[in-house]
Amino acid sequence: SSTMSLSEAEVQSARGAWEKIYVDAEDNGTAVLVRMFTEHPDTKSYFTHFKGMDSAEEMKQSDQVRGHGKKVFSAINDMVQHLDNSEAFLGIVTPLGKKHATQLKIDPKNFRIICDIILQLMEEKFGGDCKASFEKVTNEICTHLNNIYKEEGW
What we know:
mainly alpha
């Protein structure tokens, strides 16, 4: 597949790593967002309903934060299932990138932030090998999202 730089073995080990964290998609997705909002408070400005929340505890309990955490993890899960099929992978990444670029106007650097936090969480929970086998996937996702942003004139 032309656009993907992952070997079949890398795809398999990335899927294995992702499965571990995806088992608790809502809790882990929420943990990732809460960490992002706490460590990068400017990212909260994109979410009008999260703006007033200052404590991590409050964010963790929020249905909206939990709902979006789960949504982020579902989207990544769809991408992970199609790592060996560029066309299908791009079919998921492209509309997502376009929406964030044109409608939501989210700074693309936030995708890197969220991916780095996912990698941190993987390392904390499952060790360095788990993180290492998923790193290439996050690079792939971010590269494609950045390309879509460029096409949209960012």
